[in-house]
Amino acid sequence: MALKPWYTVIPPREDLRSGKPLDASEFAVHLDQVRDERAPIDYRDPERFFERTYLTQTLLGLGSEVVRRLSGETTETSAVFNLSTQFGGGKTHALTLLYHLAKHGKGADHWPGVQRILEKGGVASVPDAAVAVFVGTEFDSLTGRGGTDGTPLRRTPWGEIAYQLGGAPALAVLAEHEEQFVEPKGDVIRAFLPKDKPCLILMDEIINYVSTYRRKGYGNALYNFIQALSETARGMKNVVLVVSIPASVLDYTAEDIDDEGRFKRMLDRLGKAYMMSAESETSEIIRRRLFEWDLRAVGQNGRIALPKEALNTCNDYADWVVAHRQSLPQSFPIDSARDAFAATYPFHPMVLSVFERKWQSLPRFQQTRGMLRLLALWVSKAYREGFTGAFRDPLIDLGTAPLDDAMFRAAAFEQLGESKLEVPVTTDICGKKDSHAARLDEEASDTIKRARLHRKVATAIFFESNGGQAQSYATLPEVRMSVAAPTLDIANVETVLEALVPPNGVCYYLDTNKNRYWFSTKPNLSKLLADRKASVQSPRIDERVRTEIEKVFSPLPGTERVFFPTASGHIPNQPVLTLVILAPDQSPQDSLTLTRLEAMTRESGNGSRTFKSALLWVLADGDGALREEARKLLAWEAISDEKDDLALDEVQKKQIDTNFSNARRDLRESVWRAYNHIAMLGKGNDIEVKNLGLVHSSSANSPVQLIINRLKMDGDIEESIGPSFLVRNWPAFAEWSTRSVRDAFFASPKFPRLLSATAVKETIAKGVANGFLAYVGKMADGDYQPFIYGTSLQPGDVEISDDMYVITKETADAYQRAKSEARTLTSLVISPSQITLKPSEQCKFTVQGYDQQRKEMPVESVVWSTSAGFIAENGTFVASDEPGTTTITATLGSITATSTIQVRSVDDKGIRDGSDDGNHQPELPKPVDPPMPDALARLIWEGEIPWQKWANFYPKILAKFASTKGLKLTLRVEVAPDKGVSAQQVEEMKLGLRELGLDDTVRTE
Fold it and tell me: For burial by CB atoms within 10 Å, which of 2, 196, 472, 933 has the most?
């Protein structure tokens, strides 16, 4: 069940409900005004005064002792009292209480609380007494008092006191002392004191009188008089002197301080000191003064008993505190939280405790009077806002302070002694239309907005940090406790702080360090940042944004990047995946942007674009966030450059370094977030736009990588393609040039985009190896040279050009069949090709034929011939007797082949110098391979290779050396066609060289 708003449980007093302006004088009444009945009715009407007065232990003790002494009881009483109190700490209230008691005597017996005074004093009734009041700020000794109003003139404090006690006869006793301004002593004092009734003398603000008349010596005279009066009162049964000396008063001179100490020492020696401060009872004092209570609910201890609705609220708040005890200040009495909330209801305990913990040490703070003044304005505003439906707070917590009210702010600043806080409060909390905390509440989620949590947190920090002397900051636990409520999600406090506090927060005068927060009059780094941001010019922002975009879109192998083109001619027309990054203000939501983008896709300068599918357009959602982050970065950059010249502490300098680093990161992240759309040519030949969603730097190494990965997932980009894909999409001609194959993947939207043109080579090589394709060169007569089919082919040996082709399996098989039907012998090979024999030694030679495809084919009717020796028709050769070189020749038609034979001499086996004894029969020896020569240091070949045979050069010549480390190729390519070389062909050659990882320097003439 929802808790009732405090104002429906306990209403404020009538004047606060009506919102009448509350004059500060209501809480700063002089005792003279009470005596003259010029004071507000709450002080002037004694019965009403007692109704709204909570008898603290101090008031109860002082009142009972004074009444007892006035009754003639000297046991456990004093005749002289010194009220020590902080300025505004309740001394006038105490003197007023004594005045009304003594002035009305028995008539006071029935007033609220008086019976407790009588019981404690041990007397039956309040005695009627003569009362004299002297207030140092009111009595002027130069003009005196009376003389023109029908009363005799009084110029001295003692004359005024004597007249109030006994009229003109008593004053006449002091005629000479009045004339000569000499203080009376004991005999004379006893002479003017009344003999028929008790006597109460109340003296207030005596140091003010002393300070005014110090040069005339009146201050010393007053000191002597009070000393003599004290001594006299101590010797009498029913005379009481009560003197009030503040414990510390702002703007005292050195002489004032000395005199205050002198008076205090004298009174402490002659009388009894009473410290009027009653911190533990402040809440009851405040509650009794500001709210209307049913006095029938006052308990024996004088405290108000709360109604059930109030106790329900206290219990719910206490339950929340107990549940979150680990996050709250340990100084708060969590185990007795219910009692703590009940003791201050309808105020949150932190409202009153902040004044006791922190504000009371301020020089200008008036302990009770100052709190009453502030809280009266506070309650009045909160009550009226509640009943207008604005807020329904169960308690008056610290965050509800009406800092938007100029009168309340003035009262608060007066107590703080710092009027310069007007700007920080109205800028960062409330009081102006664009105050930071109030604005954040309007923009926040419903939960935070209803709780006005930004404003409450900022207000709590203001009160906790500006009153502190020993602790001039608010801790995170204190902030949580200050806004504690049963419905509060405690995590929202940190959320709100992050929005308020630098470096990410918006406040200009709120600072932080290690979970400590404070408001001051000194602008923080956020204010410095705001000033610098305002001075950053738009061109610098544009330049920084574009520079960062180019930096974030780092290159990726196999892709090209083009930044911010303004015409289609700025975008190369090439078969390479090209990311075109548009300027950030060209949004995909803008129809003009898409129209312009489509035109540049189809155009390339003054002509048409071939490689339309190679373009990937990258667009930003807008440039607002980018520009703001760039502005912030430039501002932090300027501040960082100036930090040594600014009046900053070391903590702030470190914060600048951190913020500068964070600003660089934030701008980089804003580029990632902004560029979340891709546009490209779709399969229907229309521009398609893809939204990448929420993009951030943890998604990939660069946005280029992220885009490629996303398009791979969608099937728009492939790293490789199968040969069957080419077969399924074969064009309407027999041979398909390798260049056209590659170009199709970057020109036609029906083909997937390839991350690298190398994939085309791999596809062709794979298709050739598995028999799907043949890789051929086409001769002028229509023959295929080379013709590679069904055999291994390295991707690096595939040329991407208009002169090399792929053909389908069907075309390749048909070509082979046709060639096999018209095989032609093109060469013969004799084996062995060379051999060394002894004279007359025999050897059998064979011959093998090869067709135009270098495939073996049978040969018959070969004609053998020799330059020496003898060779039979079957190839059996007999060497001659003479040493030397013999050439064997095999001939078939016009085709010939040769083999070389070395004949050498032998030693003692019957053959010498190539001759024998005629009886030797030659034998046919086994062929012997020629001896291997010694290893050579280097092999070098130079020559011109017909382009048709280039594809076979590697497998036939270089492959056997590829595994060695000593292979080095130096190639000179010279292209000089009749029609010349175009600029596009030069660029394409450079691109191919780059794809192979080679130097792309091309010399042209």
Answer: 472
